[in-house]
């Protein structure tokens, strides 16, 4: 969905790649250290910190608010989580628009992937291996455990330690200085602790990967390719700064992968569609370069992923207003897979660009009968209604959507616009207040809700709702400020 999506982003904790293992779960001989962080930070406290950092990241980094990509990585992530050990928190998966290879995890089950990761991962299993590694960082509470380790050697507060650790992961050069500004011995201890975490995340990650029926060999394969590519680089990517790939680590994952029975994993068309979408829209390259990449890569690819390259070209044509070319491709793709959300989303954009929102509405309404409440179809449907000037209908759908997915800024942006169209300033202010809160701009959020309350009828239920939300925001603001 091109339209009104707004890129925002994060300030997180980096992580690396992992490998799978089901039958080996009892042969890993890992130490019982998964709960060692309890004396420093509780699970509930981790959730509070995670929510706070996520809001800061949205405000400061280019988080990719793309419904189709979000749905895809969420599906892969939760497939892995369902196969992971020691899951104690909900998980949130999101993407950051950055061509550098990186992935990281932080408090409260938040896992971030750079779009650049898709440019280097050749298969879905390679992507999943990175995600499984990050999930292991969360389930084994590596960040909280590292905080406990630092707390033994530093008089800093938990808040200061949390901030410097997150900085160390998100901005390695600056973060390591902030984290270990004491002695060389302290720095070496921190590095050693990080290395042990990386190896543990690899071991747990590979077990998760195997249970989730991904190809475990793609972890050492991906590790080895990255190590070879950047072996002599003067400026390695962020992921290799925070998750170095010494030869013994690659060898260890390769040996573990060999202990699993061979598994034939077919190429994932959805992975390649996601990859094509990133090349077309989030790689920061010109249209001609993107089209050339699709042409060249398609010649070397297997036939079963060929539609992904056509899809990528269609997005480039669509984004450059070459609507006839885009329509030819998308019509063919959609006839082959009429319920595919990548295609439905693109065709919806096409109809709207052609000033035919009614066609998009009809198509998406039919799709919702097959997949009721699907987020991608629903947000596109609401957008089609809005473009077709059916504002009240769009508002009704968006009210439910924002209730079900309150952290998705797409819904709030559309709801704000729809209320502007019907002249409802109060609800527009409230929707914008929610966007401000999601970006940790608490005072601005409270101000917008206060304005909405002043416009509402005195003593009305609507005013009471606004005032109740202001009370909630004040509590959230105070809790947020107390973390600093």
TrEMBL record:
Peptidase M48 domain: from which residue to which, for each copy? 71-256
Q: Tell me the compartments it is located in.
A: Periplasm
Active site residues per record: 134, 202 (proton donor)
Q: Does the keyword Protein biosynthesis apply?
A: no
Has UniProt tagged this entry with the keyword Protease? yes
Requisite cofactors: Zn(2+)
* Note on how the cofactor is bound: Binds 1 zinc ion per subunit.
Q: Name one GO biological process term.
A: proteolysis involved in protein catabolic process
Q: Would you identify the family this protein belongs to, as annotated?
A: Belongs to the peptidase M48 family. BepA subfamily.
Q: This chain belongs to which protein, by name?
A: Putative beta-barrel assembly-enhancing protease
Species assigned in the record:
Vibrio gelatinilyticus
